[in-house]
């Protein structure tokens, strides 16, 4: 699988305040979008997320978001090394996404830019 980049996930209580901090730290302007009830801002290599605790408790378990060329290829590679697909693949704002647990227990989101 080709890993194209990684975004760090940061769960915050106050998205507007966090955006100000991360825009200054990265020199990048935030791109905002909604993912269900969760407000998300992409700022540089960070995904800032804020929403109801029921959603945030799940999102805090995912270490990072990994951009890949093809989610289907990621599934094959992950299962070949003993990983487990927890959710997906599902449509995402820019392609498809899945959540996988690595054999060591770490949980990552994988995304591609291929439409479903």
From TrEMBL:
<dbReference type="InterPro" id="IPR029068">
    <property type="entry name" value="Glyas_Bleomycin-R_OHBP_Dase"/>
</dbReference>
<dbReference type="InterPro" id="IPR004360">
    <property type="entry name" value="Glyas_Fos-R_dOase_dom"/>
</dbReference>
<dbReference type="Pfam" id="PF00903">
    <property type="entry name" value="Glyoxalase"/>
</dbReference>
<protein>
    <submittedName>
        <fullName>VOC family protein</fullName>
    </submittedName>
</protein>
<feature type="domain" description="VOC">
    <location>
        <begin position="1"/>
        <end position="113"/>
    </location>
</feature>
<dbReference type="InterPro" id="IPR037523">
    <property type="entry name" value="VOC_core"/>
</dbReference>
């Amino acid at each position: 699988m080709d890993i194209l980049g990684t975004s760090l996930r940061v769960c915050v209580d106050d998205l507007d305040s966090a955006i100000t901090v991360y825009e200054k730290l990265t020199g990048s302007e935030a791109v905002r979008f909604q993912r269900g009830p969760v407000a998300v801002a992409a700022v540089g290599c960070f995904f800032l997320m804020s929403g109801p605790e029921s959603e945030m408790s799940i999102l805090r378990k995912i270490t990072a978001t990994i951009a890949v060329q093809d989610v289907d290829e990621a599934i094959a590679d992950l299962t070949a090394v003993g990983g487990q697909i927890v959710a997906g693949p599902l449509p995402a704002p820019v392609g498809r996404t899945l959540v996988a647990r690595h054999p060591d227990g770490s949980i990552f989101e994988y995304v591609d830019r291929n439409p479903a």
